[in-house]
Amino acid sequence: MHILLTVLLAILWTIIVVLGLVLLIAAAALFVPLRYRCKISKAEEISAFAKVTWLLHIFKFTFSYESGAKTEFTIFGKHVDMSASEEKALEQKKPAPEKKTSAIKSKSVPQKARASAQKPNAKSNPKAKAQPSEPGVKERLKAIWNYPGKKEIWRLVKKLLLRLLRALKPKQVRIRGELGLGDPAETGKLFAWLSAIRIVPLDIRLRPNFLESVQNIDFHLKGRLALWSLLWPLLAFALSKPIWKIIKSYIFKNKKDDENGKLG
After folding, report:
1. pTM across the whole model
2. Residue 259, exposed/middle/buried by CB under 10 A (0-12, 13-18, 19+)?
3. 128 — alpha (psi -120 to 50), left (phi > 0) or beta?
4. How do the domains of the chain map onto residue ranges?
5. Each residue of 174-200: pLDDT tens digit?
6. CA-wise closest residue to 48 among 35, 57, 38, 59
7. Is 226 in contact with 34 (CB distance < 8 Å)?
8. Most buried in the list 94, 108, 160, 166, measured by CB within 10 Å?
């Protein structure tokens, strides 16, 4: 009896530990943010560097481009050179030799003629029912436009997009350097447009060059992204009353079609 209780306690503790690890991993995936950083420089040539880290730099992905692109993935400090694996995969993909298909085509012609002769004719069989054609793009757009609660749906879509943009918004965007398009009017329009951007925290310190075409730019981007900040707006959008009504009707419609297909 004592041995049985010991075995049951060991199994129970194993289940508790496994469930705890699963919950810990799920919580980390949802709430621990991905941190990203990007740098792009343009002078005579373009160079770029990007880094994404997660969970105290346990997982790290880097991308660099100077004379060529290079990617690297790191787990617990162990480096995996992804560019080397991509090159090997490209080397292994060789074009297969073309086969002569004339003989195969000549043999397949009588088989196709036989198959077409064996197909039943819909006109000769009066019991055959014509299947309804699926609605086209115009009909679907017309149905969406005539939907009774479209104003509320557009309001919810706008709210969803704003929440997603807020979640995806970077923490810092910095631009340095000198920029000129060669045309004073076009250069002035570009700088006026850049000064009007207020969607992201943009820090621009560019020197306009109204006389020459110059592109000496350093672009820095930094931010973080958590999975829950994307899932929460999507879940709230899906569970709202008009959207959930559409989803529910679509699910039940597919179930009814499957049942009718099985009965038929």
Report:
1. 0.62
2. exposed
3. beta
4. 34-90, 148-255
5. 999 999 998 889 999 988 888 887 666
6. 38
7. yes
8. 160
